[in-house]
Amino acid sequence: MILNMLYYKHYCKILSKVIKEAKKLYCKKVITKSKNKMKTMWNIIYNEKGNLTNENNIKLLRINNHIVHNPISIANEFNVYFLNIAGSISYKRINKKKKNM
């Protein structure tokens, strides 16, 4: 059983190395065949980094059982929340320490 795990881990490392090398070769091939090498390199970089577009825009927010659609109001509510959260966390920690004493 242990021997099989060692083989498995060993071949996983080999597979990872093969995949990395195949990606390198593919990227080199695409860049060398490209007419606009700089643009192609940046496209490869963006693809490797993942999706750069932010599609997680908040359309509405519920505040005290009231739905808010205005982006400025939503931003202001987030600002108020993040300004106050540090104080409430430290307040809770102080009270917790006092209870444990």
Question: What would you note in describing this structure?
Answer:
This protein is mostly helical. The chain has 2 domains: 48 residues, no CATH class; 40 residues. The protein is 74% helix and 6% strand. It has a two-stranded antiparallel sheet with strand order 1-2. A hairpin with a 2-residue loop joins strand 1 and strand 2. Helix 1 runs antiparallel to helix 2. The longest helix is centred in the first third of the chain and has 32 residues. It is flat and about 60 Å long. The model has no long low-confidence stretch (mean pLDDT 84).
What share of the residues does DSSP label as strand, in percent? Answer: 5-15%
Classify the helix fraction into a percent range.
over 70%
Please give the domain count: 2
How many helices in DSSP terms?
A: 3
How many distinct beta strands? 2
Question: Rough shape?
Answer: flat
Low-confidence region ranges: none
SSE-based structural type: mainly alpha
Radius of gyration, in Å, reads 26 Å
Task: Break the fold down into its secondary structure elements and pairings.
Blueprint: H1 2-33, H2 37-49, E1 61-63, E2 66-68, H3 71-100
Antiparallel strand pairs: 1-2
Helix pairs in contact: 1-2
Question: Would you kindly provide a brief summary of this structure?
Answer:
The chain has three helices and two strands, in the order ααββα. It is mostly helical. It has a two-stranded antiparallel sheet with strand order 1-2.
Looking at this protein, list some descriptive labels.
single chain; 101 residues; 2 domains; two-stranded antiparallel ribbon; 3 helices; flat
